[in-house]
Amino acid sequence: MEFITNSPEETEALGAALGKRLPAGTVIAYRGDLGAGKTAFTRGLARGLGCTEQVTSPTYTIVNEYLGGRLPLFHFDMYRLTSSDDLWDIGWEDYLDRSGICAVEWSENVADAMEHPLNITIEKLGEDTRRITLEGEIDLADLSL
Length: 145
Fold this sequence. Notes:
The protein is α/β, with parallel strands linked by helices. Helix content is 25%, strand content 25%.
């Protein structure tokens, strides 16, 4: 399923619409260049889950936890990891066992550690315009902005 957004607010709105319907245990594998909008999408995702905390990029902390919504959200940034072994070392299995949503930026660095993720690719088409492609085993038939 493919969407075009024309502002960071629209990107967040799409994330919020998705967050309202994700089941516990969903793993999201983000792909997209630096500045593509992965964190903006995650801000919306958190809002859709009912989280009121400020969502920031976990670049230096590896993972940020948001526990105030209907499901916990674990936002990972794998940019600095070199392999999935590093992911297991930080407790990946424990996060999976907590029945929340694991949103993973730079997922290609740890792709072999994720089984059946919801793949979200965000491509920059212009200053604020993004093509967002969602692929996975979750029913997204009526998802809209």
